[in-house]
Amino acid sequence: MKPKTSGDYLEDRGKVIDKMRAMLDEAALAGRDLTAEEIEKYEALERKQEALEKQARLMDNQDELEYEVSQPWNPIINRRSLLNESNPHTDKPKSIVPATEVFSEATKAPQPTPGVTLGGILRAMAGADTTAVIQNALSIGADPAGGYTVPTALLAQLVDALRAKSVCNAAGCQTVVLDTKQTNVARLDTDPVAAWRAEQSLVAESDPTFGNIQFNAESLAVLVKVSFELLQDSINVEEALMNAFAQSLALTLDQAALNGTGLANEPLGIVNTPGIKTVDMGINGAALANYNPMIDSYYELANANAGNVTAAVMAPRTQMEFAKLVDSTGQPLQRPSTIRDLPFLSTTTMPITETHGTANNASSIIVGDFSQLWIGIRQRLRIEVLREKFMDNLQVGFIAHLRADVALAHPQSFCHVQGVVPV
């Protein structure tokens, strides 16, 4: 008999999921919850589909191993992670997701059960009217402490929504899937160096230098308050709740990635990472008069072999002052060709109250190859509901806990322009 492939296991899993959906649809059409017998059967099917998915992944890993063994060794990696990034031969889930790709697709996240959304789960947790499908999903993810662990499929949707609102993602950062609290990622810092040689002479030895990036997933929590009336009556409350969580988490992750101190459980951000390049506007800072600070940052990055510069991130005030620059005739000052197409991205997470010499209203600009900024996220999200705390105002609170961390694959790929003061 022909051995089963990963595709065969996934096909069998799809059939099991179809049976699960049929059970939920039947109960929903009848306007009832699953019976005790149906729940037992449903949970057995759930265990079966998880086992089939695991077997499919094992087969994928075996196929990939056989594929890699058959390939010649290629030492030209150039600072790339040694984590496997989705081999086209197996199309396995990616561990590192570029900014241009959809997280849920790249990580091969399962499709959510039809009719189940994160917003619907939140409404049900607060006691609002719900459906049998949502109620069953809630019962499966509930934990003894009264919280709810969000399924991978719904978490992937939230991560995609978060990334869409993140300025770091717009700048080109990569998202790393963290499987444990502490995750080590190998990287190749320097390539082997070739050397000219005389005929029949020895080949000069040159070893590559390997480094290590360590992620320590820290707890990131957000509280969202909603009125009972809104939960019961609003036609778009589910979308609004998703956007509220995504916006808050995105802003907090951006702040940590750009300016994190590395203290009090906050990740270490770009501007505080040792080894980045700097351009100083002067002892007491200076206002922007031209694009020279940006050209200077390009020079610093070029000297460090930083690669392609993908974006410049700054405060809205700084972006506005660049837009107001004029030449001697009063016409808008044209960007030099070097930075003509460089995205100037603004975010309120870049402060305008920094101290620089005697100035206390300074700000910064971060210029660099943001593909070297890695944001690690664990595929686990827990939500708790607070009913009593805000009852006086007829509100309910939701607390979401996400584990994440930030790391720079190559600090020299970033330049910190510091001491930008207003005109």
Automatic annotation (TrEMBL):
Pfam families: Phage_capsid (PF05065). It is found in: Virion. Residues 146-418 form the Phage capsid-like C-terminal domain. Keywords: Coiled coil. Transmembrane segments: none annotated. SUPFAM superfamilies: Major capsid protein gp5. It comes from Candidatus Thiodiazotropha endoloripes. Signal peptide: none annotated. This is Phage capsid-like C-terminal domain-containing protein. Residues 35-68 form a coiled coil.
